[in-house]
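fyi for ur records
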Amino acid sequence: MTITASQVNELRQRTGISMMQCKKALEEAGGNEEKAIDIMRKKGAAKAAEKADRVTKQGIVVIKTKENKATIVKFLCETDFVAKNEEFQAIANAAADIALQKGADAAKVSQEQAIKDLFNKLGENMSMEIKVMEGKGIGDYVHSNCKLGVLVNLKDPDAEKARDVAMQIAAMNPTVINPEDVADSDVAKEKEIWKAQLKNENKPEQIWDKIMMGKEKKYREESALMKQSFIKDGEKTVEQYLEGNTVVEFMRVAI
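which gave:
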């Protein structure tokens, strides 16, 4: 199979091993990154490859906006010590700047050498995710610890409401915009759980369908941003707060 430059770059960032070694290992592993790491271990590239096993649970989230475009960068590392490192943070901010100008892919490529150099200096595994949003109604929110960020785009521009809705998404973590957007497969999975619960509660089977209809409605609405209770006014839903405006899309990134 054909191994892409992106695959090679990802493995290189995870392991710190040369591009050529990464490419050869990926080719031998049929493109499977984990198998490629095992192959490199077996061939003696153990020191760097072992770093790939360390879990990247720390990091920062950076958001930048310009005109009708915004980007959100999630830059992961192993420890909070590195997450607070000035060089680490500079890489995330540089990536965000370039993503606004040239897109997410170009931003990742632009920081490859800087990430490798910092990897070699600090010895920690790092990985980066970048997303870009375009629209006239963009709002954003980054939590004070820089580990949670949200971008949202409203159909009609309204800076105050876009900001409020971004905060709503950060706090309540909706998975979809509207109830009908919840995947049927997710509902089916929940129904199996509800059936087991009703059985354990000895509820008459003839009323299960009615009970589950109510549970499904509640599940869909709790998952849907527009039907959630608005955090700044519990008497309103987000839909009511927006007064006819709508959410086109949103992105929520957390560490």
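The chain has a mean pLDDT of 91. thats all i got for now
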